[in-house]
Amino acid sequence: SREWHLVARPQGWPKPEDFALREAPVLQPGEGQLLVRNTHMSVDPYMRGRMNDVKSYIPPFQLDRPMDGGAVGEVVASGVEGFAPGDHVLHGLGWREYALVEARHAVKVDPDAAPLSAYLGVLGMPGMTAYAGLVDVASFKEGDAVFVSGAAGAVGSQVGQIARLKGASRVIGSAGSDEKVRLLVEEYGFDAAFNYKNGPVLEQLKKAAPDGIDVYFENVGGEHLEAAISVLNPHGRIALCGLISQYNATEPVPGPNNFALVLGKRLRIQGMIVNDHEALRPRFVEEVGGWLRSGELKYRETVVHGVDNAVDAFLGLLRGENTGKMIVSFGD
Ligand code: NDP
User: Fold this and answer.
1) Tell me, what's the ipTM?
2) What is the spatial distance between Cα 305 and Cα 68, in angstroms, rounded to a whole number?
3) Where are the annotated coiled coils located (predicted)?
4) Least buried of 125, 197, 220, 257, by fewest C-beta within 10 Å?
């Protein structure tokens, strides 16, 4: 079985040489364990943070050890009652072909209810992030005008559509290509969208949101944050979900130069970590599951094939090569 190790801590943009695909023995499950053949793994932006040796809400990857992260796979041997070969499970030991998983850290998933990859995306961690960020963190209410950055990605594409379905007065998104912008408007029903590479964010946002915005769902940081602060209406809320524009920065990133507006406008900025919002999961499953079944909520995935291409998929994610959730499929 092959597994990906981090072999050097990246400085700035990660390089392929920072990773190595290594052979590891396939072990039989002990009591309480499952041997899982992974079929899909997730690459996520937060993994970049785990490549740095810094204290955070999640421990860093260790050098010369397998990396980990969300994955789904098929149980091939079980050391615990309630799980049998052929079951499909969601668990946290991605970046490898075979995983020895503690059954208490595995959740059974139904391949007939949804494609397995969806449990890593729209029905999984990113979908939950979008829902919880909007409902819990941004205190979204009907009639709000919502702006989301990273809007064609796994989280952002759901944020915009959930806001629309929950009665936003206007939904605006930004993304990094004209094709993604078209998708936002034509397929996801955003009221307006722009390509942040085509001109200053502030100018484009003002044009897209002539009456201002009430919620900014932040995935990007930098120029986007500054523009949003300028355009937010009094008592507006920012759900600070991610800051992907600075994950590879080698120098401290300057804060928004219009920060004083936060005071005058009585804005609220709140950081979020999706794991804090488990209490919302039943509502998420019911509401988002329903919209998916009715076809009101759409999603895309970009699928990269083969364990040997997992690092390329991760690097591609940071460069914006994905539309919707970036998935690595180990399938035949
Ligand atoms: P995405 O599917 O959105 O993929 C990342 C996207 O970021 C790329 O496709 C690219 O799209 C965009 N991007 C990359 N660099 C830049 C840049 N310099 N400026 C603007 N956009 C850029 O990933 P996710 O949906 O998984 O994650 C989105 C955000 O949510 C990330 O910031 C992530 O860290 C955060 N997150 C936070 C969680 C939490 O609990 N707080 C949980 C999950 C995600 P483009 O072509 O548009 O540039």
Assistant:
1) 0.99
2) 18
3) none
4) 257
